[in-house]
Write a structure and sequence with these properties.
This protein is of the alpha+beta class and 625 residues long. It contains 15 helices and seven strands. Among the domains are: 150 residues; 118 residues, 2-Layer Sandwich (Heat Shock Protein 90).
C-alpha cells in the first residue's frame, strides 16, 4: 500500500476559532432570548391551549382506533374459532372511549354523527356476540369430526373383515360340496357335471355384500369432500340409505338358516348407522329419508358446513359495520381537524410578529458566522485534500483487488468447464475405443465359429463363451465409466436416488462398508445446485477410495437452519491438510480446491478436518434454494 502524503496545514488553530464561534453563539443566543421573551409570553397561553386540545384529540382518537383494532383482531380470532377471555372487558373499554370522545369534542354540529357512531358500535358488539356464540359452537363441533370419522372407518373395516371371512368360508363350503358330488359315482357323469355347474352358478351373496360395502366406504369418504350442505342430503337419503337397505336385505337370514357372519354383519351395520347418523336416528322408508340422531359423523359434517356458511355471513356483516364506523370516524376527524386549524390560525398571527424579529437577528448572526468560519473552511480544505489523495490511492487498490477477484472467479469457472469437458471427452473416447474392441471380439467369435468343422466343437464353444463374457464386461465398464464421468444418473433417477446410487457404487467398487443417513432433499435444490452437490460428494468419496484405505465410511445428510449439512467421514489413514494444500507440484490437491470452489459457488461453507493415521471428516453446507 502506498504511504499517505504528509500535508502541512496553514498556521492557525481551527479549534480556537470553533471556541470563539461557540462563545459568540452563546452571547447571541442570550440576546435573542431577551428580545423574544416578551413576545413568547403573549403566545404561551394560546399555544398551551392548542397543544392540550390537539393532545386530547390525538389521544382519544388513538385509543379509540386501538380499541377498534383490538375488536377487529378479536373478531378475526373468533372467526377462526379462537376464543378469548378479555372480550367483555374490551367491549366496556370501547363504549367508554366513545363517550369520552363525545365529551372532548363537545361540538353541537357532531351530535348526529356521534349518535350514528353509537348505533354502529352497538351493532358491532351485537354482531361480535353472535360471532362468539358461533366460535364456541364451531370449536365444540369440528374437533369431534376426526374421532367420529375414525370410528366409522373402524366399523367399515370390521364389516369388510367379516365379509372376507364369510366369503372365504362360503367358497370352502362350495368346494366341499363339489368334491362330494364328484365322489358320488352312482350318478352318471352328465348328472355330476350338471350338479357341479349348478353349485358354481349359485350366487355368492357375500360377494354382492362386498361390492355394496365397498361402495359404502367410498360414499363415507365423499362426505368429507362435499363443500355445500345441500349436496349432503342427496348422498344421505338416496345413496347411503339405498345401499344400507340393500345390504340389510342381503344379510337377512332365510328360513332355517343359521349364519353367525350375517348376524355379526347385521350388528355391525347398526353400529355403522349409529356412528354415522347419531344416537336415536330413524330411517323413514316411506319418505325415503334418514332422520338424524345426536353426535353422528354426518350430523357433525353437516353442522360444520352450515357453520362455515354462517361464518361468511357474519364476516360480511362485521366488515359492513366497520366500514360504517370508519366513515363516521372520518366525519368526526374532519370536524376536529377544522377546530384545531382555527386555533392554529390564532397562534400563527402572534408567531408572525415573533418571526420577523428572529429573522433580523438571524441575518446579523449569519454575517458574524460567515466571517469567522472562513478561516476554518480554508484550513479544512487542506485536510480534505490530503484525505481525498488517500482515498484515491485506496480506491485504486480496491479496484485492483476487485479485478484480481474477478480473474480468480473467472479462472475457477474455466477450470470447472475444462474439467467437465475433459470428462465428457474421456467418456466418448472410452466408449468408442472399447466399442471397437468389442466389435473386434465379436468378429473373432464369428471367425472361430466358422472353424467349427476343423476344431473340437467343445473347445470352440468354451472359447466363444469366454469371449462373450469379456464383451459383456467391456460393455458394462463402458457404461459405468460414462455414468461416473457425466452424472446423467441425476436426470434419470433424481437427486436423492442419484446420491444413493453413488454411495452403493462406491461401496461395490472399493469394497468399503458405508453407513448412509439422510433426510429427503429432492425438493430443496435446483438442478444446478444438485449437480454441484453431486460432484462434491463424488469427489469426496473418490478421494477416500483412492487415498484413504478406509474400511468404514459414513455419509450423513441433515437439514438445519434453511441449509443442508453434508458430512462425509472415513476411518482411513488421514493426511496433513495444510501441507497438501500448500504443495506446489502437479498433485497438490486440485480435488480439495475444486470442492472448496464448488461450495463457494453454492454459497455455503466447507470444513475439512483430518488426523493423520486416524480419520478424515469433510463437512459442507448448502443453502436451500
Amino acid at each position: 500500500m502506498k504511504n499517505l502524503p504528509i500535508v502541512k496545514v496553514r498556521e492557525g488553530n481551527p479549534i480556537k476559532l470553533v471556541w470563539l464561534i461557540t462563545l459568540l453563539s452563546f452571547s447571541v443566543g442570550v440576546f435573542m432570548v431577551y428580545l423574544v421573551w416578551s413576545t413568547l409570553t403573549g403566545i404561551r397561553t394560546e399555544r398551551e391551549n392548542l397543544f392540550e386540545l390537539k393532545e386530547n384529540f390525538i389521544s382519544i382518537q388513538t385509543k379509540l382506533e386501538n380499541s377498534l383494532a383490538k375488536q377487529k383482531s378479536e373478531i378475526a380470532d373468533l372467526l377462526e374459532a379462537r376464543l378469548s377471555d378479555n372480550s367483555q372487558k374490551e367491549d366496556y373499554i370501547l363504549l367508554n372511549l366513545v363517550k369520552d370522545y363525545r365529551r372532548v369534542v363537545s361540538d353541537p354540529v357532531l351530535i348526529p354523527t356521534f349518535e350514528e357512531l353509537d348505533k354502529s358500535i352497538n351493532s358491532l358488539l351485537s354482531t361480535k356476540n353472535k360471532i362468539t356464540w358461533w366460535a364456541s359452537a364451531y370449536s365444540r363441533t369440528v374437533p369431534r369430526i376426526p374421532p367420529a370419522r375414525k370410528e366409522v372407518e373402524s366399523i367399515l373395516s370390521k364389516i369388510l373383515e367379516t365379509v372376507d371371512k364369510a366369503e372365504g368360508q362360503q367358497r370352502l363350503d362350495r368346494a366341499a360340496k363339489i368334491r362330494k358330488i364328484k365322489q358320488n359315482y352312482s350318478r352318471g357323469s352328465k348328472q355330476v357335471d350338471i350338479a357341479i355347474i349348478t353349485q358354481l352358478a349359485e350366487q355368492n351373496v357375500f360377494s354382492i355384500i362386498r361390492r355394496d360395502i365397498t361402495d359404502l366406504v367410498q360414499l363415507s369418504e365423499r362426505l368429507h369432500a362435499i363443500p355445500e350442505a345441500d349436496n349432503l342430503a342427496d348422498l344421505k337419503d338416496n345413496k347411503i340409505r339405498t345401499l344400507l337397505a340393500r345390504v340389510r336385505m342381503n344379510t337377512q337370514l332365510s328360513e332355517g338358516e343359521k349364519s353367525s357372519e350375517k348376524i355379526q354383519l347385521y350388528s355391525l351395520l347398526e353400529e355403522y348407522e349409529t356412528a354415522m347418523f347419531g344416537q336415536g336416528y330413524t330411517i323413514d322408508n316411506a319418505h325415503q329419508t334418514i332422520i338424524l340422531g345426536y353426535d353422528g359423523e354426518y350430523g357433525l359434517i353437516l353442522d360444520r358446513l352450515k357453520m362455515e356458511s354462517e361464518k361468511e355471513t357474519l364476516q360480511a356483516e362485521a366488515i359492513r359495520i366497520y366500514d360504517s364506523i370508519e366513515t363516521t370516524l372520518g366525519k368526526v376527524t374532519g370536524r376536529t381537524n377544522a377546530i384545531t386549524q382555527q386555533e392554529v390560525i390564532k397562534v400563527e398571527k402572534v408567531l408572525r410578529q415573533t418571526w420577523r424579529t428572529m429573522v433580523i437577528i438571524w441575518i446579523v448572526t449569519s454575517l458574524l458566522y460567515a466571517m469567522l468560519a472562513y478561516e476554518i473552511i480554508m484550513a479544512a480544505k487542506l485536510q480534505i485534500k490530503a484525505i481525498e489523495d488517500s482515498n484515491i490511492d485506496l480506491a485504486a487498490m480496491a479496484d485492483e483487488l476487485r479485478k484480481s477477484e474477478e480473474r480468480l472467479h473467472r479462472l475457477s469457472s474455466d477450470l470447472f468447464s475444462v474439467q467437465e469437458n475433459e470428462r465428457k471427452r474421456i467418456a466418448f473416447e472410452l466408449h468408442d475405443e472399447l466399442g471397437q474392441s468389442m466389435a473386434a471380439l465379436k468378429l473373432q467369435v464369428g471367425a472361430i465359429a466358422r472353424r467349427l468343422g476343423d476344431v473340437d466343437p467343445e473347445e470352440l464353444r468354451l472359447v466363444c463363451d469366454e469371449m462373450r463374457g469379456n464383451i459383456n464386461q467391456i460393455i458394462e465398464n463402458v457404461r459405468r465409466l460414462a455414468r461416473d464421468l457425466s452424472p446423467v444418473v441425476l436426470d434419470d433417477l433424481g437427486f436423492q436416488a442419484a446420491i444413493e446410487y453413488l454411495v452403493n457404487n462406491f461401496s461395490k467398487i472399493y469394497n468399503v462398508k458405508i453407513r448412509y443417513q439422510h433426510t429427503d432433499v429432492n425438493h430443496l435444490f435446483d438442478e444446478d445446485s444438485q449437480r454441484i452437490i453431486y460432484r462434491i460428494l463424488q469427489e469426496a468419496l473418490t478421494n477416500i477410495g483412492k487415498h484413504a484405505g478406509a474400511k468404514l465410511v459414513s455419509l450423513v445428510i441433515q437439514e438445519e437452519d434453511r441449509a443442508v449439512r453434508f458430512t462425509v467421514k472415513d476411518d482411513g489413514r488421514g493426511f496433513n491438510v495444510q501441507k497438501t494444500l500448500d504443495n506446489k507440484d502437479a498433485h497438490r490437491g486440485m480435488g480439495l480446491e475444486a470442492m472448496s470452489e464448488r461450495v463457494r459457488i453454492l454459497g455455503g461453507k466447507i470444513n475439512l478436518v483430518s488426523r493423520p493415521g486416524i480419520d478424515t471428516t469433510v463437512t459442507f453446507t448448502a443453502p436451500i434454494k
